[in-house]
Write a structure and sequence with these properties.
By secondary structure, this protein is an alpha+beta fold. The chain folds into 3 domains: about 1-65; about 80-170, Pdz3 Domain (Roll); about 180-435, 2-enoyl-CoA Hydratase, Chain A, domain 1 (Alpha-Beta Complex). About 30% of the residues lie in helices and about 20% in strands. It is built from 12 helices and 17 strands. Strands 2, 3, 4, 5, 6 and 7 form a 6-stranded antiparallel sheet that branches. The protein has a 6-stranded mixed sheet with strand order 8-9-10-13-14-17, with helices on both faces. Strands 1, 11, 12, 15 and 16 form a 5-stranded antiparallel sheet that branches.
């Protein structure tokens, strides 16, 4: 019964507003824990198939966490040991960032250069089966574990794009390296920066890319396009640094914990990597989590025009809490909002300029999902205050259209291509901003 006692103590520690339990009273801590203990014993003694105490307690912990939100989960010791480390992460996965919506396994976004991206998987795709085994109602951790394999291994996915018929794809686990920043010259005098994620090398790579563009274009450089589409996020601190690189002063993000007193404001440091040049940031519903942090900071500080479609809408911050010898728990412990207090969780960010490629407008309306749709999504109860929407413009004279709240997303392979209509529109907008700011368009 030592394990049972440990489980009860653990349950008390996790209970919201955990405090010394009362000895009496309906709904008191002791009463609820007595119920847990009774259920535990009845299951252990009466189940038709013998079940170990360890398995029951693991299931109980997993159940507690799965009932909180879409991201919180229990990670068993075996799963934790099998999880990819920072050194082998890219080789061990297909590069798909996933979530659960109504029991369905869905893709937030594939990572650039990954097997998933090369196969044409895009944000919003629903994975129906892995190696012909249905995944309906699987937990996120179970699904992610099923997709892991050694380099060279193959996995068959049955998935659906929107309302299209399901298709089978066979993907091979091949080593790849996520290049989080890629820079190039666009339209002769515009710098294009593809920011695909946030890791330990992103900040240095961004600075090097901007320096390289300046060396190539020189004084003719009129502005930068930051492409955050199909960016599922990454390291929180790195995302803050990326936003800080283009914001000279003001707040970058506000982190809100459980208690009102735990609010933390993170401010920008002096300096602007673009030296005041106009910015356009491309976003879509594959722009999630830390990528939304960057987009929100740029928008609220009126540092960039957001162009594209509504972002995913997830701003939760998880902590991995070890349980020595018994795995770990992944628990949502905070969430962030934009500098002006706009909520991202369950809402997403509306672009200043809504641009949907014509070929994508024909896709079925069923190809939609955001954080608010997820099982156990963190509720956003804040009222919508008048005038609390995104800024109308960044520079005086900039034309802004009303945003389309839902739009299908491009595949990663089409981002930055010759036929990228959103990128073409961004070039035109940047030229207009350059004229407004008094910079000559070459």
């Amino acid at each position: 019964m030592y394990r049972l006692a440990a489980a009860i103590a653990f349950s008390m520690a996790l209970a919201p507003g955990a405090a010394p339990a009362q000895k009496s009273g309906k709904g008191s801590g002791y009463e609820q824990l007595n119920l847990f203990g009774e259920a535990f014993e009845r299951i252990r003694q009466g189940a038709v198939e013998p079940v170990t105490e360890g398995k029951l307690i693991g299931a109980a912990i997993a159940g507690m966490l799965s009932g909180l939100d879409a991201r919180s989960a229990y990670i068993s010791e075996a799963t934790l040991r099998a999880s990819p480390t920072s050194a082998n992460d890219d080789a061990a996965t297909l590069g798909l960032v996933l979530t659960i919506r109504s029991g369905k396994l869905q893709v937030i976004s594939p990572k650039d250069g990954s097997p998933g991206a090369r196969a044409g998987i895009r944000p919003g795709d629903v994975i129906l089966a892995i190696d012909k085994e249905p995944v309906y109602d699987r937990t996120l951790g179970e699904a992610e574990q099923r997709l892991r394999s050694q380099a060279g291994g193959e996995v068959q996915l049955t998935l659906r794009h929107g309302s299209e018929k399901p298709i089978d794809l066979t993907l091979k686990h091949e080593p790849y390296k996520l290049q989080t920043v890629v820079g190039r010259i666009e339209a002769e005098n515009i710098g294009y920066l593809r920011i695909a994620g946030f890791d330990s090398g992103t900040q240095a790579a961004l600075a090097a890319a901007v320096q390289g563009l300046r060396q190539k274009i020189g004084s003719k450089l009129i502005g930068l396009i930051l492409d955050l589409r199909n960016n599922p996020g990454g390291d929180f601190g790195t995302a803050v640094a990326v936003a800080d690189a283009f914001i000279d002063k003001g707040d970058i993000v506000v982190v809100e914990g459980r208690k009102p007193t735990s609010v933390k404001r993170i401010s920008a440091t002096p300096g602007d990597l673009a030296n005041g040049l106009p910015l356009v940031a491309l976003v879509n519903r594959g722009t999630a989590r830390e990528a939304e942090l960057v987009a929100g900071a740029l928008q609220d500080n009126r540092r960039a025009v957001l162009l594209g479609s509504k972002t995913f809408g997830e701003s939760s911050i998880e902590s991995l809490i070890p349980l020595p010898g018994n795995g770990a728990i992944r628990l949502t412990t905070a969430r962030f909002v934009t500098p002006t207090g706009r909520q991202i969780q369950g809402k997403g960010l509306e672009p200043d300029l809504a641009v949907v490629p014509l070929k994508l407008e024909k896709l079925a309306q069923g190809d939609r999902h955001h954080e608010v749709d997820l099982r156990g999504a963190l509720k956003n109860t804040d009222p919508i205050a008048p005038g609390s929407g995104p800024p109308a413009s960044v520079l005086s004279g900039a034309t802004v259209t009303s945003a389309v709240s839902e739009a299908p997303s491009v595949t990663t392979s089409n981002i930055g291509s010759v036929g990228d209509e959103q990128l073409s529109e961004a070039v035109d907008v940047l030229r207009g901003l350059s004229l407004v700011s008094g910079r000559a368009v070459q």
